Amino acid sequence: MRITAALLLALSLALAACATTGPEPKKSETQTAPTAASHLEADRDLAATLRGITARGRRGEAAKMRDEFIEQAKLRPNDWKPRLFAAWTGQPGEDAWQDVAKVCKLSPEEPWPWTASGLIYLQWKNFIDQAESEFKKALVARRDFVPARIGLADVLRHRGKHAEAKAAYEAVLKDAPDWQEALLGLGLAEAALGDAAAARPHLERALQVDPDDLIAVDALAKLALEAKDSARAIELYGKMLQFNPRDRAAHLALAKMKTEAGDAAGAAQSCEAAMAIAPDLETARTLAGLYQSLKKNDEEVKAQETVAKLDTKDPAPYVRIADIRRGENDTEGAETALRQAAERAPNDGAIHLAIARLVAAKEDLVASIEAFRTAKAKGAADAEKELKELEEKANLGPQIVGDPNKVYGTVGARLNKQFQDLQKANPALGGKMRARVTIGADGVAGQVEMLEDTVHDGGLTALIYFSLKDAKYPKKSTPTFEFVLNPATPAKKK
Fold it and tell me: Which residues contact 357 (CB under 8 A, 6 or more apart)?
């Protein structure tokens, strides 16, 4: 939880314990009128106690502290402090606001409950006007009350009046040097005014006074980022993650600085942590790039798959996965990835050409010609030459125009010529080839099914398949073509 008002960040546990335990003041002590100096020191201690409660709450101790303070309130019914501390364990939130309001009603003469109420208004709902009203009530209770003066300075800063806020913080520090919340507010105001040189020492001093001040850490880390001080930024964002390991912004900032520092492995680790909290497209792409630079293929594939899930239209992740798989000699994996890319970019000729080349490597002539024809149709200029070579390998002739009988005769003649040439080298070659063609009303073959092929020669299969498919028929029909190729010598009995 981030606290934006003063008086909110942590002190050591020892200070918190000292301020909330022990006997009530002796009667003789309460009879002595407190001096301004004693008021100031008591207020400084109580401010530190509230910071301590905030820090312990971030560490998951809120419920435990609340129970402890409620027990103290029972033992000290006339002391408003344990009730205030118990309420503060739940800030910011509705319950904390209601509990503090009860303390204000019970002890309206005390400035601290009004101030605490104002701070909750600021940090919970950013109700600036209500916060200002509460701080003014605290100053009515005690006109020089430092925490309320800081609260009013916070109000100015929240309204964007940074110059006025700066002057107000400086006035407080003149009366109460080294007051942690005033140092913090002054540094934040100066940073907002663009005066990083002035802001940095005030924020550093605030952090020295309270090493658990998460707001100071965050502000200093941002200044380090702006100054390109990688080492300091990495140190500060690392500290923020000690406070809150689920601070996604801190993980991303660390990733950025580690990348700039040349620590790609560390940057990837920080990106992974951010993605585990809440995946987003930009970080997923960054992570994929980091793994690519680290040559971690398995990790990059996972990152690219995440990119693909987050952006369901971009084909690039699958294209990159295909490149990785090709580098690993995994042609099946590469083809699968490219087909996934083609689903997202159906008219991308380059993707279809890459698919065609992978298909051609499997030496399936029919599938290869189909793939290169698709690539050519999608605009891949480089497909033309390779397609021509494949079609020549299949001995495809000019388009046949006519009824199924004419088509059958022409294809049979082509087939016989090619078969005889092949049979010279392999006299035992022969068998049956049967295909069914589905012809549409436009006379174009929409589908060719190879129903039987006992010849098992890729070139002959391609010749039949594409001759039948490329033919122009007179009408809609579904003819079946059968070709019997007899071997030159009888097949040997097994």
Answer: 386
Structure tokens at 288: 């994929």
User: For the purposes of burial, counting CB atoms within 10 Å of the CB of 20, is it exposed (0-12), middle (13-18) or buried (19 or more)?
Assistant: buried
Q: C-alpha 355: how far from its chain's center?
A: 31
Short-list 382, 393, 411, 370, CA closest to 457 = 393
Tell me the pLDDT tens digit for each residue of 64-83.
999 999 999 999 999 999 99
Give 31's pLDDT tier (boundaries 50, 70, 90).
very low
493: confidence class by pLDDT, cuts 50, 70, 90: low
Place of tokens 């509990």: 99
Would you give the end-to-end CA distance of the chain in angstroms?
Answer: 82
* Measured distance CA(259)–CA(45) in Å, rounded: 42
Helical residues (DSSP H) of 178-330, grouped into ranges: 180-192, 196-209, 214-226, 230-243, 248-260, 264-277, 281-293, 297-310, 316-327
* Cβ proximity of 317 and 307 under 8 Å: yes
* Per-position b or e across 47-83, b if 16+ CB within 10 A of its CB: bbbbbbbbbbbbeeebeebbebbeebbeeeeeebbbb
- Sign of the Cα torsion 63, 69, 70, 72 reads positive
Report how far residue 16's alpha carbon sits from residue 88's, in angstroms, rounded to the nearest whole number: 12
Each residue's pLDDT tens digit, 400-420 = 999 999 999 999 999 999 999
Per DSSP bridges, beta strands 445-453 and 480-485 are unpaired
Closest CA to 420 of 488, 494, 335, 478: 488
Give the DSSP H or E segment for 357. Answer: helix 349-361
pLDDT in tens, 202-235: 999 999 999 999 999 999 999 998 998 988 999 9
Q: What CA–CA distance (Å, rounded) separates 390 from 374?
A: 14
The answer to whether 318 and 303 are in contact (CB under 8 A) is no
Supply angle C-alpha 425, 429, 430, rounded to 5.
Answer: 150
Task: Give the integer Cα–Cα distance in Å for 214 and 2.
Answer: 7
Average pLDDT over all residues of the chain: 91
Burial 169-185 (b: 16+ CB within 10 A, else e): beebbeebeebbbbbbb
